[in-house]
Amino acid sequence: MAVKNKSIFISLTLILIAVLIYLGLSFYGKKQLISELPELPQLGEAEFALNESFSEAFQNVKNNTSAKNIGALGMVFHANNYFKEAEACYELAIAQDSKDWKWNYYLGCIKREQGNSEDAITHFKDVLKVNPKSHMTLYYLGESYQQLDSIKKAEQILKEISGFNKSQFAYSNTKRTAYFPLPLYARLQLSKLYTNNSKTDKGIEELKTLVEENINFGPAYRQLSNIYGQLGNEELRTYYSNRANDLNIYMSPVDTLVDALSLKSRSETYLLKQIDDAIRSSNSHWALELLNLGLESIPNSKYLISKGIKHYIDMNATNRALPLLEKHVRHFKDNYQEIIEVGVGLSSKGFKKETLNYFKIAEKINGTNASAKATLAGMYFEKLGMKDKAVSLINELLEKHPNSPEVKSAAIFLFLKTEDIAKAKLYLSKLEKQAPLYKDIHVFKGILAQREKKAEVAVKHYEKALKANPEKKFIINYLRTYYTKNQKWEKAIWLYKTVLENTPNDSDIQEAYGSLLLSCPNKELRNLELAKEFSERAFINKVYTLPTRLEAGRSLAIALFELNSHGKAIYYMNKTIDMAKRAGANKQYVFELEGILRDFQNIASASQ
């Protein structure tokens, strides 16, 4: 019995010793690991949120030195532009758990950002050993080979991605909308690869196929414009540049891991860049989340405050901008352009009290030129209905700057709007004597002729004014109505062409031009190819109104059908009908569209 008890005692003693040794080694190992972590940056009190973020991540590592916690600390360093420290953390995390591929991914991203393609390739390859289905890693690997001029390897990878099934990239539960699947970006990179390596024709062919299959892929149009610019073909450079500017041209592939970094950032510079990227890629809600994060963590950042106010206004969430206005004024009280931009934005949403405050601040800014203040006078009347204030300010400016054509021009506009015709004519006479070629003179003469019901005189002046004032919609609308009423179809075509030469991305004009070319009563002036092109451009334009997009879709479908592209015509008519129904469009209008669709289907079936 004693022997047995002695054996048990020895066994327990050995187990205890083993446990103590293990705990000792663990403690030593943990202590050693913590000592290898990079030091936290010395930050001031103003950077409280960033300090807190670093402290929390570091404390998590001290509590548990897992690869996950060490990597998370690296992400905090990474997201706040401490790249050397981030690299150290990622390397330690990999040493702890080489199967957790995210840390090699982030290391590769840092090297890629720094232009160190060789190291980026090493890390991206390590990712793919563990997770061969990481398509973004493969994309970045191909891009890195391209940077090193490893053409065959880059081409092989980009072709592989280009062949992936697009349905694989229908991301869900992501912060951003993936407007285009990764294979499209791979094809874009492939075209660049060809173009940069003396295969320009092949690059152009790839891009033209890409835009034919994906008509709203803006970056491909931009790349075509760049190529033709390099080739000295100004006509095609301009054409594809115009097509690109109809669309969102800054759109990168959705990278959920990089998005996760953004949420750990407390860096003004990093967040502003990510917010700009989100806005440019039409990810308004993702931009909003990043803005809220930035404003919470860096509440006194003048640039985040400015960005926040403007984005809240654009998102019809102006009430959320109001608490930021006081800080905004403190930061920008001497910046006329910034103050006016926000003031006009507020007025567009009906916040008159706040608009008035901004206009008053703008008026007091020293160094503002007379032309800007004259424009402000008009805004008092147009935006706030403050006739007396507007007239008082413009009279003051006329007295101080009697030789300024810009002030006289602003005064004439204001007097015309406030029905003071005598004063408008007085200053028009003075302006004409001083600067007979001033761009607005024919505008004013056209307005006065229009008031006096002298249509032909008004048209003569508006036609002369048009090239210098293509943005003035009232001129365009007057001429369009006059030409239509009097069946001057050649003039109507001239009108749209002239406006589009100066403002090529106006979807309303694109639609009107396409519609006229499709169904002009003078059949000799019809042009189905151009009708298709401009209707298509209006239909996919990033800036549009619903009626314009619906009419453009209708015209596009009809043009395609008349060009014997029956399948595409039916596709776009279905798309237009679906859009109209979802928007709650007039039932009679939807019924008419459905009638056209039935006709398409019957004719298409009969021709088979």
From TrEMBL:
Cited InterPro entries: TPR-like_helical_dom_sf (IPR011990), TPR_rpt (IPR019734)
Pfam families associated with the record: TPR_16, TPR_6, TPR_8
Residues annotated as coiled-coil are none
Q: Where are the TPR repeats?
A: 101-134, 439-472
Alphabetically list the UniProt keywords: Membrane, TPR repeat, Transmembrane, Transmembrane helix
Point out the signal peptide segment: none
TM ranges are 7-28
Superkingdom per UniProt: Bacteria
State the name under which the record lists this protein: Tetratricopeptide repeat protein
Provenance organism: Seonamhaeicola marinus
Origin organism lineage: Bacteria, Pseudomonadati, Bacteroidota, Flavobacteriia, Flavobacteriales
